């Protein structure tokens, strides 16, 4: 049974990483499939909100609980701190770094959506 919970926790990590990737780069997909904006904009707003206000994504406690059920040790903090910043930054996540991560997600998406809306206005 431990293997089931560990595998489920790994699956949650993969889904979480895919979500983070979608938040950051999803606007590129919207340029190709406009309907995807209806999914990407709320995801982007959630991602930016979690970074600016230090909210822990619900996927993080689910993963931690599954790890504990699988006989592994959970962790404290959020997904970005545990998985991404451990690779990118040697120091712990600070509010300043978190704000910069939010800005890093916001700016490219604003630019891409600006282009998308400008092109759409030209067609209409």
Lay out the secondary structure:
Blueprint: H1 2-32, H2 37-53, H3 59-69, H4 79-88, H5 95-123
Helix pairs in contact: 1-2, 1-3, 1-5, 2-5
Question: Which features would summarize this protein structure in a list?
Answer:
124 residues; single chain; 0% strand; 79% helix; mainly alpha
Describe the structure.
This protein is an all-alpha fold. Helices cover 79% and strands 0% of the residues. The chain is built from five helices and no strands. The radius of gyration is 17 Å and the shape is elongated. The protein starts with a helix and ends with a helix. The mean pLDDT is 83.
- End-to-end C-alpha gap: 57 Å
Low-confidence stretches: none
Shape: elongated
H/E element string? Answer: HHHHH
Mean pLDDT: 83
Gyration radius from CA atoms, angstroms: 17 Å
**Largest sheet entry:** none
Structural category is mainly alpha
By DSSP, the count of extended strands is 0
Work out the helix count: 5
Instruction: Give the proportion of residues in helices.
Output: over 70%
Give a brief rundown of this model.
This protein has 124 residues and is mainly α. Helix content is 79%, strand content 0%. The N and C termini lie far apart (57 Å).
